[in-house]
Design brief:
The protein is α+β, with helices and mostly antiparallel strands. It has 3 domains: about 55 residues; about 210 residues; about 110 residues, Distorted Sandwich (Glucose Permease (Domain IIA)). Strands 3, 6, 7, 8, 9, 10, 11, 12, 13 and 14 form a 10-stranded antiparallel β-sheet that branches. Helix 4 packs antiparallel against helix 6 and helix 6 runs parallel beside helix 8.
């Protein structure tokens, strides 16, 4: 058979299922296989065709209608293609189902994980709420203890002043008694000297009782001397008795004075301990908030420069001597109490309290958020929850402010400013003076907000600081 016949035969006798093989044969012949290559390709094609017809014999599908009968011939190649397509479709279905199952399982685990995280988050919020309530009760108890300590300090101070006045009176009485005793002793000694002088003169004059009995002048003189001696003796006995009583009374006063000093020392010690215990938390509170304590106290003193009342320094007469130790201790205590009072005034004007008194939850803290700086702390609660001023101050702004929504700015002492944003209702006006704990508005969702909450800011000298620094600093004081 010639090459031409070989090339022409597939067009007339080959089946469709071997067209690909024939195309390969033609390609091989064109590449230079020659006659031997053509024979080899023919044998391969025939062998493949025999194997295909063995496993996939030709089948006919008859289609009968009322008028005629037709059939469709299913060749081996068609069956192979159908089987391969079915296999590919089944494999694709299996793989797609596997992927869907894996996605479903993964989605289920993600949902379960999200539910677990949500549950843990809610538990953590409940724990934080309980801890907040506990800290609030502790703050109230601490404030009550602070008030009780102030009352005790006031009572102790009054007792100290009374004891000091009594001590002065006792010292004055002792001085009077000592001077009286000294004068009495001098008068007694003078009377004795006069008596001795008169006796010596009588003896020197040589007058005896028999000689003077008849002389009226001598009798008168003797009567006068006798009466004077008797009077002097009575005065001496009286002065001795008074001196004895004065000595006993002085001993009693000295003992009472020692007891009073011991009592004063105990009172001073209790006052010093109470003042130190009350002053230490205030020092720590302002230091934790990063506030310059000495500068703040100086500012408060300049604003409250009036003097008078029980906190004035005690002034004692030293008679040119060194100051009394008790006086120094009393003045030291009064200075600490004055410092504590200045702290109390400064604390009223510094935002150490929370802007909310109802239950709430923290939703966002101070710092970077979504690539931007979040300048405050967010508190979430029910719509219309009252909002309170956290310190005494003057309303600087009250109205609408773009992203803040309904905003209130309050200017406080020491260069501090607080902001309360996203409110639903504003209850104050610009220029109005507000006190700590006074309601200034209600929580809302105005401005650039994703839900009902309060955006609370604290700015010191125009720079935003973390509000939780102030709130945490005062948790053991207020």
């Amino acid at each position: 058979m010639s090459h031409a016949n070989i090339l022409q035969r597939p067009k007339s006798i080959c089946k469709p299922h071997v067209n690909v093989v024939i195309w390969g044969y033609r390609r091989a012949f064109r590449l230079g296989w020659g006659v031997k290559g053509g024979k080899l390709a023919k044998r391969v094609i025939l062998k493949i065709r025999a194997v295909a017809e063995r496993y996939f014999p030709e089948k006919r599908l008859f289609l009968r209608s009322e008028n005629e009968t037709r059939f469709v011939r299913l060749t081996s190649g068609s069956q192979i293609l159908a089987w391969a397509g079915s296999a590919v479709f089944v494999c694709w279905s299996i793989i797609a189902t596997a992927f869907l199952l894996m996605d479903s399982i993964g989605s289920g685990s993600v949902r379960d994980q999200a539910k677990r995280e949500q549950l843990l988050y809610e538990m953590r919020l409940n724990d934080l709420s309980s801890e907040r309530d506990l800290r609030a009760s502790e703050s109230l108890l601490a404030q009550e203890r602070f008030n009780v300590a102030l009352e005790q300090i006031s009572l102790m101070q009054l007792a100290l002043l009374k004891s000091e006045d009594r001590r002065k009176e006792m010292e004055t009485g002792i001085e009077v008694i000592q001077s009286t005793l000294s004068r009495t002793r001098k008068e007694r000694d003078a009377a004795r000297e006069n008596n001795n002088t008169l006796t010596v003169r009588l003896e020197d004059s040589g007058i005896v009782p028999d000689e003077i009995s008849g002389s009226s002048d001598v009798e008168t003189t003797l009567d006068f001397l006798t009466a004077a001696l008797a009077t002097t003796a009575r005065q001496r006995d009286t002065q001795i008795e008074v001196a004895t009583k004065a000595t006993t009374y002085a001993s009693e006063l000295e003992l009472e004075r020692k007891l009073m000093f011991e009592k004063n020392d105990r009172i001073f010690s209790q006052l010093e301990d109470a003042v130190s215990l009350s002053l230490a938390p205030l020092d720590k509170m302002f230091e934790a908030a990063g506030m310059p304590t000495e500068q703040i106290l100086s500012t408060v003193r300049r604003g409250y420069s009036g003097q008078g009342g029980p906190l004035m320094p005690l002034i004692f007469s030293t008679r040119g001597e060194a100051p009394d130790a008790d006086g120094l201790r009393a003045n030291t205590i009064l200075e600490k109490m004055d410092r504590m009072n200045m702290y109390r005034i400064a604390a009223e004007q510094t935002p150490f309290s929370l802007p909310l008194k109802s239950s709430f939850r923290y939703t966002s803290g101070f710092g970077p958020r979504w690539g931007r700086q979040h300048s405050g702390t967010d508190f979430a609660s029910a719509h219309g929850t009252p909002i309170y001023a956290t310190a005494d101050g003057v309303v600087k702004f009250a109205g609408w402010s773009s992203g803040y929504g309904r905003l209130v700015k309050i200017e406080h002492k020491f260069g501090v400013e607080t902001r309360y944003a996203h409110q639903s209702n504003i209850l104050v006006k610009v220029g109005q003076r507000v006190s700590r704990g006074e309601q200034i508005g209600a929580m809302g969702n105005s401005g650039r907000s994703t839900g009902t909450h309060l955006h609370y800011e604290i700015r010191v000298s125009g720079k935003a600081v973390n509000p939780m620094t102030f709130i945490k600093a005062a948790k053991n004081v207020f």
